Amino acid sequence: MTTRPSEQVAGAGDPAPVVAKVVSEVAEVEVAPDQSFFDLGLDSIQLMDICNRLNETYGEVIDLFLLFENPTVTECAAIIREHQAAG
């Protein structure tokens, strides 16, 4: 049985692999850490799906506008790390 990111414990380890898994599931392709989600051809509906999945896992961390401004696994993981450090 495969564990979905939302079933993992938030705050347990580096969020980058979880973000990469979520984006890969939505995009249906493997994604490099610094590859732009826009280069993958993701649309706003798919980006909202990514936001929802990440927020389900980590709490209300990322909104759609932050995702548009930080459209890579590396950038999203940094936002989550900052949120974890502050909270």
CATH class of the domain at 29-87: Mainly Alpha
Number of helices: 4
Radius of gyration: 12 Å
Give the integer mean of the pLDDT values. Answer: 88
CATH topology type of the domain at 29-87: Non-ribosomal Peptide Synthetase Peptidyl Carrier Protein, Chain A
Name the helicity range: 40-55%
The low-pLDDT segments are 1-11
Order of helices and strands: HHHH
% residues in beta strands: under 5%
Shape: globular
The structure class reads mainly alpha
Note the main sheet. Answer: none
Number of β-strand runs? 0
- Per CATH, the superfamily of the domain at 29-87 is ACP-like
**In whole angstroms, how far apart are the ends?**
32 Å
CATH architecture of the domain at 29-87: Orthogonal Bundle
Q: How is this structure best described in words?
A:
With 87 residues, the chain is mainly alpha-helical. The chain has a domain at 29-87: Non-ribosomal Peptide Synthetase Peptidyl Carrier Protein, Chain A, CATH 1.10.1200.10. It has four helices and no strands. The longest helix is centred in the middle third of the chain and has 15 residues, at 44-58. The model is unreliable at 1-11 (pLDDT under 50).
Q: Which terms would index this structure?
A:
87 residues; 54% helix; Acyl carrier protein; mainly alpha; Non-ribosomal Peptide Synthetase Peptidyl Carrier Protein, Chain A
Please specify the SSE layout and strand pairing.
Layout (H helix, E strand, L loop, with lengths): L15 H12 L16 H15 L5 H6 L3 H14 L1
Helix pairs in contact: 1-2, 1-4
